[in-house]
Input
Amino acid sequence: MSRFSPPPYASKPRVLTSSRVLLPRRSRYVYIALILLLAYLVLTRHSPISLPPRRAPQHTPSLRYKNIDWSRYAYFQYATSTAYLCNAVMVFEALDRLRSKADRVLVYPEEWDTQIESPTDRDSQLLVKARDWYNVRLVPVDIPITHDNGQGDVEANSTFIKFTAWDQTRYERVLHLDSDMTVLKHVDELFLLPSTPIAMMRAHWKLPAKRTLASNMILLQPSSEDYERLITASRADIRQAGDSEADMLNRFYGDSAMVLPHKAYGLLANEFRIENHRSYVGNTYDRWDPERAFEAASLVHFLDEPFPKPWVMWPHALYAEQHPRCKGEDCRNKDVWVSLYDDFRKRRKVNLTLATLPRLSG
Output
């Protein structure tokens, strides 16, 4: 036998069966994990607890615009003269044309009525137009202000009728707009702001000399208690000499009011005429752009001294001296400024002309 020959009785090589094949360690872990996952899915198939999604669900807004009960909110206007009654109807016309959804309320002296006695009965004509054309709720009131304060400022005292906005307690929120303004876009979004007793803008045109709130737009939560306090404080024998309703509102709410942005809601007509726009812009590095400012605005208020309100024609000498000037070939300020006044006057003329006519359906 050769030295390297196999032993005569060597057994045959053993063949391992499949049940005894040893898999690599990594493969074993994969199979075990798959088996455990399959078992989990089977056991939880009928469980009330669902598996977490692969990605987080998209955020659903808590406030659905189309499901809002708009009868809880109202735009508020007041009028104590024919001129401002016409302005108020113009505001309601704009809100109607822009498809605002909130209610509309007009407060006026109870001495007025809706019985049109003659073609020249302008107050009654305008009240009927507001009610029938623009679905305005008419609220006659006894103005609870003593007009005679010894100084003869009867017209100034009548502005305190603004405080009757707080007495509109059928609404959750009321938005007062001064009537000497042009409404470029409805501002229904303001009704949906977080709850607060009152929201106003800064009187930015008085900065930096005076830091105060403006009363040309007021978002408020009606309150009988606040109404009584304001009316009592506005009595001629109680309020301070020379006080306006803006002064009183600043004393009541100056430290607690929510402040609204003036670029959207507080653009003034004189911004297109003055040279220094620091108060409007709010800083020293942004530049004034009249077209951009106009596009960003929802409201334009006709506060433009020494010019009179737009329903009063300018003295020719005043216009020649104070109207906006072109800067080279850039006449954008002048163009916007002139168009604001022209638009207001044209709409006012139409408003007065059509006041005697019924609204056509469709």
Remarks:
- Residues 212 and 251 are 10 Å apart (CA to CA).
- The first helix runs from residue 25 to 43.
